[in-house]
Amino acid sequence: MTPRVVETLQTVDVIAAEDTRNSIKLLNHFDIHTPMTSYHEYNKVKKDAPAGRTAAEWTEYCTGH
Fold this sequence. Notes:
Layout: H1 3-11, E1 14-17, H2 20-29, E2 36-38, H3 44-47, E3 55-58, E4 62-64
Parallel strand pairs: 1-2, 1-3
Antiparallel strand pairs: 3-4
């Protein structure tokens, strides 16, 4: 991962990951301790970040929001 991605994942309030089992391995490697939740199309609306909070959506490609 690029330094910018690592910084983004360290500074958001929550990481929404499609596959938390695989994501946690990479997050641990980079010493990232941001809370993570599972995120899929069927629960997308319920998992959106509350107002005033930031979230990163982790898919095959990681994108910050």
